[in-house]
Amino acid sequence: MSFILDIITRVMNLFGDAVFAALSFFSPAVALVTLSAVIGWLMLLIWGWTSNQTAIKEVRNQIAAHLLSTRLFKDNLAVTFRAQRMILWYAMKLMGHSLKPMIIMAVPFVLVMSQIGLRYEFRPFQPGEPIPVTVTLKPLNEQPGSGKSTSAPSIDDKNEPMKNALVAIGSQLKMPGDVTRDRFDPCRAIPERTSDWRLSASAIGEHPLEFGQDDDIVQMPLYVGESLERISSLRGGHWFDRILYSAEASIPPDSAFESIRIVYPSRDTPIFGYKIHWLVTLFVLSIVFALVIKPFTKVHI
Amino acid sequence: MGVERANSLFHTQMHWFRLVMEFKYERLAQKCGTGYSPVPHFCRHRIMLFTIMRILFAILICLSAFSSGCDRATSGQTTSAPAKPAKTPKFKKVLVLGCDGMDPKLVRRLIDEGRMPNFAKLENQGGFKPMETSIPPQSPVAWSNFITGANPGVHGVFDFIHRDFTPTKAANNVQPRPSTSISLPAPTPWSTFTIGNYNFTTSHLNPFAAGAETKLARMGVPFWDYLDERGIPIQMYKLAANYPPSESKHGHMCCLAGMGVPDALASLGTYQHFTTEPRAPIELGGGRRDRLARDFKDGSFVATLRGPKNEFLPTNPRTGEPPDMQKDLRVYRDPVNPCVKIKWTNEGVAGNTIKEVVMNEGEWSDWHEVHFLKTPAGPTLAAMVRFYLQEVSSQRIRLYVSPLNFIPTNSAAVISEPPEFVAEIGEAIGPFYTQGFAESFKARHFNDINDEEYRVQADIVLDESMKMLDYALERYVDGVLFFYFSGTDLQSHIFWWDSDRPHPFRSPEDTRKYFGVIARIYERMDEALGRCMASMGDDTTYIVMSDHGFGNFRRQFGLNTWLRENGYLDSSDDVFSSKTNWANTKAYGLGINGLYVNLKGREALGSVDPADRDALLDEITEKLLAVVDPEEPDVHPIRRVYRSDTTYSGKEKGNAPDLVIGYEKDYRSSWQTGLGHFDKMVISDNKEAWSADHCIAHDLVPGILLCNRRIQLESPALIDVAPSILAEFGIATPKSMEGRSFLPQATGSAP
Q1: CA nearest A244: which of A233, A256, A253, A255?
Q2: Judgement on whether residues A116 and A222 belong to the same structural domain of the protein
Q3: Considering the domain boundaries, does residue B26 fall inside one?
């Protein structure tokens, strides 16, 4: 499962990198509108290929005809009610015909969305901006080489091994020279199994952060600048993390780290001067573009 | 414009859509054999046009998106101030910089020392004079004088604290209430019902039902009404004595309310202080002390932040009020480093959000949102706080949490006119203190923070104000711009000391050092003026003013105790209570400077016949002026006693205290007097951190008036500022005002 996901996400990442490299000359808002147009067009094409166009055309004609009959025979209640019942019936048939293309489109659509989300959900930090970083260690009994405790220790006894683990592994961070850390970093919350840093970067670019020591080292890039970067705010070990945060590879299962999180700021991509979530913008614009292109493709939707 | 174009195009498109649908009906009718005629030729053109319109519509969307989104989306940030509108001024430009409590003596000294170059420049261009303050010289009174250009008898604000006129016989309707606003309870609902633990009323189901309301109690006509009706723009930031903000009748006034705006608990600012030290929770007037409790499940600490009352929960029979909403903050202490992580959950109807903040010892956090969910189905009250980690070690933690402020972009109360004005400011500059008294002087007063910590906190407030000033200057085109600074007053209350006598608790070095803080704030006011001058240019009339000056507060006078000792007040309790014999009480003190006669027909349990009032007032006045300080027999603590019936004029003067006490310098009323309480001694030392004040005789604490145009009046007063602003726009002093313009009237018509 993990291997397959890894392959898929790698391929998608390469594809996403290529597409966004081509769009790198535009501002994020322009790139999003362009992507919406392309996605709208592709959705329409896939819909045309995968759906039963003849049946859809027939159903839509039937709906339109019954709509017309409600207008023509509005004085005849029996005909009007029958027409409305038939409209409802054909509308459901239309939904049934839509099911297949929607299911087929769902998987590539989610993968494409996740690639766009990697660029539009978060923005890189600005130089000098505070950068919160949180490392979470696995519970002691899941850490490599640990045995399960049989006694019932007190809170402080129970905390001691995790405190040692946090101090030994969870507190190790190597950074490039352009990144500095707060004077008392890290702040460790033993019950949470977390170490928190507040970093600051002075230069634009991709700065590799290296956590852990010896043979248990996990890396995560830190992005500083203004461009559209492929950003995952979390690197985890769960397969679900691999899908949601596909820019980063999974943490190896034999690592003491459960996850590394860099809390990037949300990206605002204003459309018409309003702050709208990129997903809403993409959804609305792609539908608009699909409707615009439809007459040229002769696809029935 | 892009949106308007898009709308217009959309409607055109809808027209064509209808036409084409008609054509489709025809075509279908033909197919279905309903006997309709074949497709007319002109309809084909319509289809082509429709398609072209679709394409144009899509292109328009793209262009609009590009034009509106390109610039800001590139950086992904929206915190920069909006660009200054490229408009040509239509009206004159007038700036009024209000520096609360700025003292003319210190300004003179700093100008002479060359430390306030912009003030000096203004003085050279126009003039600098002490400005007569209000009677009494309290900020709500003084700023109301400024706003209305009239005396307190017109605007009805006589003190920070007024009598509550609500008739409650048991307490002789002498409960204190804030002077500038009145809270009105929600009307009694038609019916109530319970779901689970929550009480609902029919008002909760009716979105149009009237709820509890706060009303502006300041009367009189504000000066901006005269400008507003002439279409002259007015922008005011943090204006005092205008909460809730008065309405702009013609839509040309924007105002962010300042002093008087409450926190989310509806108090004037209630901070919370948590420590691991074993101590009982305590409620202070303006603060709460609580213990950080260790959670024995995981070893972290829990701080329970208390929010506003939850009106959906059953009323506590003991207190008669619903319980507070609460929020558990989990505090994790680092095992080695002096830092903590604070974590909490913001509940919402749609889902929960986990919030975290990591702090080092001695660090102030940014603003963080705290949400209180009143019932599982809503509503949610959103507020924001700043944390200050005072101390953390293996032994103990001390954590200060600021009062719960409203979130500017999502304010739970209307604190600006128009209501969205505060959100616009918040969008541009980020969150800021919305409560009127932003400086945490209560925490300093109760010794939960020290001098240095207070200075740092007050500087944060000042930095936020400077940021807001930059925004105001970016937005300003013409008309009146008013900007208020509170730090000159609230830092002076703590740090001012210009006497050779020893400070109540500071060493001489610290006294000098912290008095130097005031000078530094004055320099920052000079910097603020410099920014205004650079942005607004030479064609602007600049007025820098303060509402009063400052003096030391070394000794306190217990007015109610004096009245009791002299047989005017009969109470065996230390507060007005059932043990107060009102039948034998002739006068009582309430508010910082107020003395009221227990008058028959006015007070519910009045004892003094109106015919005897004048004689009684003369007698009390004579005795008060004759009081001497037992420790300094040559000093009279009371310099002046003002009779309100001769000092004030206007239809509100009947609500004024009968006497207003004007204390001598170094003296003020005691801390107990304000709320109608008693002291152990009539005169005692003030040992509080609040060691300077201005609520004394008005001639001892004049404010300042600085203008780049010649000040024509010999002794300008606060009530002269509003007529002068109007005069700049050619408006003669209206009848509602008593002041005179200190500037020549520009050409224009009278109102």
Answers
A1: A233
A2: no
A3: yes
**Do A156 and A239 have their domain in common?**
yes
Task: Report the pLDDT value the prediction gives residue B388, as an integer from 0 to 100.
Answer: 98
Q: Do the Cβ atoms of B299 and A190 come within 8 Å?
A: yes
Interval B404-443: pLDDT, tens: 999 999 999 999 999 999 999 999 999 999 999 999 999 9
- Taking only the tens place, the pLDDT of each residue in B169-207 is 555 667 788 889 888 887 777 788 888 888 888 777 777
**Binary contact (A155, B65; C-beta < 8 A):** no
DSSP state of A278: H
Measured between CB atoms, which of B58, B336, B339 is closest to A288? B58
**Which residues form the domain of A222?**
131-262
Judge whether A20 lies within some domain. yes
Instruction: Pick A184's closest partner by Cβ from B75, B356, B360.
Output: B360
Last residue of a domain, one of B407, B426, B456: B407
ipTM over 0.85 threshold: no
CB contact under 8 A, B25 and A71: yes
Which regions of chain A does DSSP assign to beta strands (E)? 131-137, 173-174, 179-181, 187-189, 194-201, 205-213, 216-224, 234-236, 257-262
Same domain as A154, residue A108:
no
Q: Say whether the peptide bond before residue B82 is cis (omega within 30 degrees of 0).
A: no
Confidence band, pLDDT 50/70/90 cuts, at residue B39: very low
Asked if B406 and B393 count as a contact pair (C-beta separation under 8 A), the reply is: no
Sheet with B293-294: list strands edge to edge: B293-294, B301-309, B324-333, B339-346, B353-360
What phi and psi values does residue B59 have, to the nearest 5 degrees?
A: -60, -40
- Flag whether residue B73 sits within 8 Å of chain A, measured between CB atoms: yes
Residues in B touching A192 (Cβ below 8 Å): 332, 341, 343
Count: domains in chain A:
2
Give dist(CA A111, CA B198) in Å, integer.
Answer: 45
Rounded Cα gap, residues B498 and B519, in angstroms = 12
Residues A113 and A199 in one domain: no
Residue B673 belongs to a domain with what CATH number?
3.30.1360
Is B64's Cβ below 8 Å from some Cβ in A? yes
Residue B641 lies in a domain: yes
**Domain count of chain B?**
3
Specify whether A152 is located in the same domain as A247: yes
Residues A109 and A163 in one domain: no
Residues 267-296 in B contacting A (C-alpha not used; CB under 8 Å): 296
Tens-digit pLDDT profile for residues A99-111? 999 999 998 888 8
Residue A30 to residue B70, Cβ atoms within 8 A: yes
CB contact under 8 A, A28 and B296: no
Q: Which residue in chain A has the smallest CA separation from B77?
A: A268
CA distance B503 to chain A (A): 37
In a domain, A276, yes or no: yes
Asked if the Cβ–Cβ distance from A33 to B74 is below 8 Å, we say: no
Closest CA to B555 of B624, B625, B620, B629: B629
Same domain, A249 and A148: yes
On the question of pLDDT at B18 being above 60, the answer is no
Long-range contacts of B33-37 (CB under 8 A, 24+ apart): B34/A68, B34/A72
Q: Which of B359, B386, B407 lies at the terminal end of a domain, its last residue?
A: B407
Q: Are the beta carbons of A197 and A181 closer than 8 angstroms?
A: yes
Q: Would B183 be classed as within a structural domain?
A: no
* Percent with pLDDT over 70 in chain B: 87
Q: Which of B60, B61, B295, B343 to mutate to test the interface with A (most CBs of A within 10 A)?
A: B61
Using the beta-carbon criterion (under 8 Å), do B72 and A186 form an inter-chain contact?
no
- How many beta-carbon pairs below 8 A join chains A and B? 157
Confirm whether B731 is domain-assigned. Answer: no
Note whether A64 contacts B54, CB cutoff 8 Å.
no
Tell me whether residue A233 is in a domain.
Answer: yes
Q: Is residue A126 part of a domain?
A: no
Disruptive mutation site among B339, B340, B367 for chain A (greatest number of A CBs within 10 Å) = B339
Q: Which domain holds residue B44?
A: 2-72
For an interface test with A, which of B31, B53, B358, B427 has the most A Cβ atoms less than 10 Å from its Cβ?
A: B358
